[in-house]
Every structure is written in structure tokens, then in C-alpha cells.
Design a protein that fits this description.
268 residues, alpha/beta, Rossmann fold, binds zinc ion
Amino acid sequence: MPPPVEDLSASSLLAVFAHPDDESLACGGLLARCAAYGVRVSLLCLTHGEHGPGQEHERLADIRASELRDAARVLGIRDVVLLEHEDGMLPWIDSLRLEADILGAIRRLQPQVVVTFDSDGLYWHPDHIAVHEQTTAVVAGLGSDGPSLFYVSIPAGRMRAVVDAASKAPARADEPARPILGVADADAFGSMAPAPTLVVEAGDFAGKKLAALRCHRTQYDGSVLQQLSEPDAARLLGTEHYRRAEVGSRDEVFIEPFATPVPVGGGT
Ligand SMILES: [Zn+2]
């Protein structure tokens, strides 16, 4: 358990991501933990993730919006701002539009902490990298008066370990390899992730993270995550890796008591 922290009800955190499910997979543990301690947790999600397989786009957009609302409820996210930028097109739409959306959310919600993807976009997803770049630009523009900015990544090898653990589960021999929430290559995760500076153990909140992931049924059902045992899922997905950005406020922030600093040059 983390050390006791003071009442955090005056604190707020904004997560900025590209698709429904990013918030749960990348940082569901931190979001659930912060919400449980009274932090006002908000999410800006820039697309509906409507270009996934298996459904007509408009219908999938509606389903994923509903899944996101369910996951947000599980994690304790109070405000969900779900925008309608086209899935898969974030690097190619006018960056000023994205910046205006992100800046608008920061101005309205006044977070002390913003969390988004690190520069590797979890697995080099172009939408994720665009969100990293635009969020960084907006926070940099706000200078020391802006929020503190933290980047989340998934370390190299973690998703390979997920696949290996899942392969212990009984599966039909003719079953094709299952994706990880739509991502086929487990080794893409974290292959170029910058070193984290903080590790958050979700601990008791790993269960909420798993429950939130299950809410994203169009992605979770048929994924390798579905084959994980509960203890393996908590062990492999319940540790989250963050890096403090060079831009933004340098103030001490409320998530630090939840986290273990990574020594410079150290691994995890
Ligand atoms: Zn995504």
C-alpha cells in the first residue's frame, strides 16, 4: 500500500488519449487509485476508435463510446470528453485543432497533472504519437503556470510476458494467435520506450484496471488478455511506468506518494 496521503479532493488529473481503451490499458491503475483518494480524474479521448475491424464504423463508434463510459465508471473518472476526430488520422489533421482541443480541456478542468503517451506511443501507433506531441506542445506553451506532465509507457518485454502467460491457458490447437486489444505484435510494445522515472504499483486497484479493460468488449473479447488468469493479469498489468516531462510545472504533485522513483540509469 502507498503511504497515507492527505485529502486530495482539491486535486485534479487529466488523462489525454487517442482511443477508448488507451486509458485503461496504459494507466487504469493510476487513474483508479487517484480517484479513490478523491482526486477529480478526467479523460479527454480524441477519437471514438471507429476504424476497428468487425463493425460498421458508425455503429462501432457508438459501441466504443458506451464501453468507454462503462470503463470510466469503473475507474472513477468523473468527466469524459470524447471527441470525434477520425480514428487513425490524428497525425494528418490540422495540429492547431488538436492543440485547441487539448488546451480547452486543460483550461476548463484546471488539472495539476496531465498524463499522456510517451514518445513511443506505446507501440508506435501514429495517433498515440500525435497525441504525445500535441499535448507536450500545449503544456510547454503554458510554461511553469501549466500542469505537471507525465508520460506513460509499457516496458519492453511486458506484453511478450502477457502472451507467454496466456499461452499456458488451454487453447484449441487450431486457434490463431490472439491480439492484445487489437495489436498483433506483442514485441511492438515498449521496444523504443524511454526509461521511466516513476513506477506505480496499482496494488489493490489492479482489479479495477482489469474490470475497466473488460468493459472495452469489442477489443477485449477474443484478445490475449481474456486468456490471462486473474493473478497473472494483476501481476503483469498492475505495474505502470511513467516519466516526468521536461516541460510543465516542476511542483511536487500528488501522484508521487503513489510511486517509486526509478534511479537514473536503473531498470525496472
Ligand atoms: Zn489507442
